[in-house]
Structure of Defective in cullin neddylation protein:
Amino acid sequence: MEVDSLFGHTVAATSPVSSSSHGTLEKQHLPAVLEHYAALSSNSSTDMMRAQLQELQCHVQGQGLHGDRALDLLRLMRSEWQWETMDSARFAVVYRFAFWICRDAGKRNMPVDRAVAAWHLMLNGRFRLLERWLTFIRDESGVMTISEDTWRQVLDFTRCILGDMSNYDLTGAWPVLLDEFVEKLRKGRSSSFQKNLHSLADGPAAPNSDAMVAVSPTAGCKRRAVDVDGVAAMLSQMPFGNGVGVENCAVGPCGGAKKRCVGFA
């Protein structure tokens, strides 16, 4: 099967990715790996394509292309690929590819330090609150790894949420990590933090023309609001041996604690 290339030519989705004479993948091989990733991930709903994508990842990781080395090669490709000026659809592919290729071999998540470096590389000029986000992740969130779901939804966040967070819905299908970030910004725990937030909200738009398009999160790990009234009604019908009624039961506003969409690799 051949697919349109991100760079104007076609590639066969099943053809192998060659390596150097030393058995490692170098900078010049990265475009071919990206093309194969784009071809396979666009059809990842089928079991066959998912298996081929896994096979491709095993191949490139076996050739040493993963982790910090992959991130270093992405830095070298930045000027050549010019992703700052890519349209939103093409950039989304490169953005997802960055997470896929920069994970450590055999790991599902990315170490937080590498994720911070990758976000700085990929979203510089596309995310008004990038430095605030990176500071929050690195110094305040307490997380050790970043999941693919969180990585993908951060891109959605940059495209649909205003600089002042006025259109962010805490009950929406966002990872809790983003909820906590927005809550921190809204509370303005320090005067300087609040001042910078208003400055960003009043400033010029980011270069990306799609930055303010209202789109919904596209990744998994969704949360839905719990029907608290329905739960309370069911509890009221249940016999309690100790005589405790539903009026004494602590039911939180969301029916329970949220869980982070961030795990350990």
